[in-house]
# Entry
Amino acid sequence: MKKVNVGIIGAGRIGQLHANNILNSDLLCLKAISDIKLDHLSGTSIKKNVEVITNNPEDIFADANIDAVFICSSTDTHADFIKKAALAGKHIFCEKPVSFNLNDTKAALKVVEKSGVLFQAGFNRRFDKNFRKVYETIQAGEIGEPHIIMVSSRDPGAPPEEYIKTSGGMFIDMTIHDFDMVRFLANSDVVDISVKAANLVDPIFEKFDDVDTAVITLTFGNGAIGVIDNSREAVYGYDQRIEVFGNKGVVSAENERQTNMQLSTVEGTYLDNPKYFFLDRYNDAYVDEINEFAKSILNNSPLPCTGEDGYQAELLAYAARLSWKENRTVTMNEIELINI
Amino acid sequence: MKKVNVGIIGAGRIGQLHANNILNSDLLCLKAISDIKLDHLSGTSIKKNVEVITNNPEDIFADANIDAVFICSSTDTHADFIKKAALAGKHIFCEKPVSFNLNDTKAALKVVEKSGVLFQAGFNRRFDKNFRKVYETIQAGEIGEPHIIMVSSRDPGAPPEEYIKTSGGMFIDMTIHDFDMVRFLANSDVVDISVKAANLVDPIFEKFDDVDTAVITLTFGNGAIGVIDNSREAVYGYDQRIEVFGNKGVVSAENERQTNMQLSTVEGTYLDNPKYFFLDRYNDAYVDEINEFAKSILNNSPLPCTGEDGYQAELLAYAARLSWKENRTVTMNEIELINI
Amino acid sequence: MKKVNVGIIGAGRIGQLHANNILNSDLLCLKAISDIKLDHLSGTSIKKNVEVITNNPEDIFADANIDAVFICSSTDTHADFIKKAALAGKHIFCEKPVSFNLNDTKAALKVVEKSGVLFQAGFNRRFDKNFRKVYETIQAGEIGEPHIIMVSSRDPGAPPEEYIKTSGGMFIDMTIHDFDMVRFLANSDVVDISVKAANLVDPIFEKFDDVDTAVITLTFGNGAIGVIDNSREAVYGYDQRIEVFGNKGVVSAENERQTNMQLSTVEGTYLDNPKYFFLDRYNDAYVDEINEFAKSILNNSPLPCTGEDGYQAELLAYAARLSWKENRTVTMNEIELINI
Amino acid sequence: MKKVNVGIIGAGRIGQLHANNILNSDLLCLKAISDIKLDHLSGTSIKKNVEVITNNPEDIFADANIDAVFICSSTDTHADFIKKAALAGKHIFCEKPVSFNLNDTKAALKVVEKSGVLFQAGFNRRFDKNFRKVYETIQAGEIGEPHIIMVSSRDPGAPPEEYIKTSGGMFIDMTIHDFDMVRFLANSDVVDISVKAANLVDPIFEKFDDVDTAVITLTFGNGAIGVIDNSREAVYGYDQRIEVFGNKGVVSAENERQTNMQLSTVEGTYLDNPKYFFLDRYNDAYVDEINEFAKSILNNSPLPCTGEDGYQAELLAYAARLSWKENRTVTMNEIELINI
# Structure
């Protein structure tokens, strides 16, 4: 069977994750990987199994054997690499967010559109088996019309100051996944958004004009109401749950626990906590998202998650920040219309 | 042991519920019950066991043997009966809401205050064993400082048109319980409130300028953020859950199912739904709330839930309606200051 | 509506429990209660509400107004009271076991049979809403033919020495409920029984030639295999679960927890333990069993649990002891045939 | 880091499973694989990544670069290959059972012992994260002394006639895993065993003098009682649960569900069933067992599961069959003593 030949730009944590998954995939073949610094690859099976390991991303764009590029470098480099990849005729898998700036994202996606290559945004959670089952259950009509869409999304621990400083803020860095998830589940676009946010976890966030706790409500075109709750620090684990309530029922997905051991003693009953690391929780989702990307290329079938999805999630992150700053409901219309 | 002698005003569903619970209580003694119509008591054990059954509530206020009055009549009569009971020196247990009008509530509670009688508002859910355990766990410091307080509260089915018409609207009729619950759990007053509400269940609500679906966010004085989600119709049962997230952990209470049977067949695994009727779900809570009321009278100990609690919940219902109507965040300050 | 007039013999813990439930029942009316010692009734609502309180059980048998007798005295007196009640034409509700001796039980039940009165054995667990739902699910054919029937039944704590001494041993005192439960669920009679039992909880049991831990397997006439596990001391609560596996599925009932609070901290996730006291766990079942008894009398409908059920459970307790003592499989045939 | 060089004998389903896991392991390196028929490897990544693919297992024994042999061929060939591997100085990982005949197993293990190579039996379930956590919880003393050890183990569907015919019977083919699990959890040897077994799933089992349903009880040296329940066909999935009850508590592990989606409609609440395939349920356990094997070789640390464990499980399978056939309790002493 034909495989999709891949080059990866960026060999950090997420780049290596994708690299290893591609090495185990029946649908993708890892031909090249590039990064500014390559020493952290030494001794890995990536080092051993990939032909081209280079400091120069141009080697990837220029390689006629490469069908698709995975953009896993720092966010500020995404837009530029997207354009180059598109112009080189490579399909693109890009980590979220597309960029820190809506105009840059728009511009990059316009180049993609013109070039006709496929573009998938890295919203891995759409591929989580639990969330996917919820989605399919809704699609099958089991809960009727969705009325209330809830996403609880809490990180296990706050990132270091260095990360916070360049993260772009909680909404674009963390909530962006949840913005995509509510859109995915609602199957409808957002009309307006209201944010209540606070600094309750660590004053460091305030220092960078950022928040660490938020409850975000959204109105959808189909009338449904969405609500996202976020915290940068859930000490008991990576808390990732969804619930969709409709006129015929309710469907939800709980956290995955580390084990399903249950212990009862005279002091009470004890369970293991939810999984702690996102790589542990979403391990299979990361595998599935790249294979779905490959299938779309190989079978010319619809992408599970597009550039437009990436853009809309960024738009919501932008609107959320505005809502927080101005302490008011922001309509998506006004965002689209202003010269961002 | 001395018991509290009780007269009940109003012998409808909730009046009869309290009457039967009082008949089984070791702390309360039911001396009298009054209503405009008394025929629906015929054949009940209330009829058999209560000395005074009367059309005239004045018989209760005038009875020197009666220590406390339960006000279970229609909401529009509450304020008047409260004043009369207070002036007669009777302690008062009053069903929610105190009234449909903040000024009436204020005026009635002022009379109560002057007279020095005890006043308990009928927020039965504070006495649900599951919610109480959540509350105690928070009070014990197990989750540290509360950051996010969530209440899911969905009725099993919409009430009839006749009821909707005079209900005062969803916020004062149904959400009022949830307003009390978030205040109870947060242990802090509300600073502001924002409402997203909709007509998704039945157009009948719109006809009476009412809503049937809402997501309400609140900021608390201690910085915590609250969120309530409501629907008038959860077809799978009476959906009543709470969750409080803090810097040291999260605590929650699930629904009670009808039974804990579990069936797995080739088609999947089946559980019974949550309990459907509020009298079934909160049966024990109704018993506990009146015994706590009696204990406060007998032991001169603090009331578990006061007139101020009743007033604050009504204030929130008023603010919620304003927020919905004007599609904006409403601060509690502005409500307190305006001449309502 | 006509009620069944009741006299209770024995005013200890279980007698008082039934008395209070009868006082709250719409189908039964408590006319008399007798015991050797009556001082422990002083101050109770039983004292206040029951006309005849007597030291002499004959007062009950002689009372023409009494329709049914509840036998709640010590086990060694059951058989005699059963015969007297039957001869007096009173319907009988008798606590388990009928007697400590199979011949006595047989003889008493023969008198019952001849007299034509109704006789219900006090197997309250058949009326637990969870177990009943399991039973109904099996009856509805949801799991097809039962293959494996499992009962986990563990007391929260060992009884005092005084109790153990006269209990008749674990099988007749405690497992008897489980013998009835497996018969109830299997809807088939037992062919043989094998016991592995041990003294692991407390050496006091050995002193009285008794055990405190057992795993009992049974073969049913329909081919199904049953298994009961028992312990006299489950420190985490009253552990009462059932599971029935069939060719089309499996159905089970879990324990009821004290509350459904869930707390997650950095140390793990905590739940409350199962309910601890049998009166707490089976509270509603005790109410339902007596109302079902009343309905059978009033409507002339089949008893939910008969003297034969009581006898069969005792037969199994006897066979279990034999199996343990002789360390072999005992067939029910040999028990029926020997001159017990 | 040094890796353990491996040759695999047998390239069927389980051989390929191990091959793929070894290819992804950081501790093992797959050098060779042999089978009588090799065509089913064509197109696999095994074919691509393994140097030596041969019809002749002797190529593996003779290869000085190979440190360890995985024996994944049909059971009747195990004993012979074990001896050859041991004499060639290769460490051995052998699928269960070691052989169909206790004397053959004994003889093979004696050669292993003399040669000094390491031998691990393929009891993958010991490495399941859930069961392992239960084991560690017991080892940590959380439940005190174990009193009752329960294993529910039911296959999702009966194997084909061809398989049944040569399986050696349910006890050696399927229950052998459960025999190992109860020994693992009890941390004590079995004293005696009693079996109730039946043909309830399919008459085909009876044709081959086999059973498809069983409840097996065991007494352990430390006084604990064990119970295993088996069925060849649980239509709702692969049912694999354990529970250990002790004087200080109880610990258990539930099934893993396919997803943790939960759907509530007017008809009830639905969950996904347990995972259906053993490769799905025990996927990670298969990875862990071989890495633990590698660690024992590389670090000279104790094996997690030895030849003696394999032998004891077979002994129990033999005794179980005897107990079933003779319908009596069989002591392990008598089995050890008879000339098998």
Q: What stands out?
A: The radius of gyration of chain B is 20 Å. The mean pLDDT of chain B is 95. The first strand of chain B starts at residue 4 and ends at 9. Residues 126-281+313-338 of chain B form a domain with the Dihydrodipicolinate Reductase; domain 2 fold (CATH 3.30.360.10).
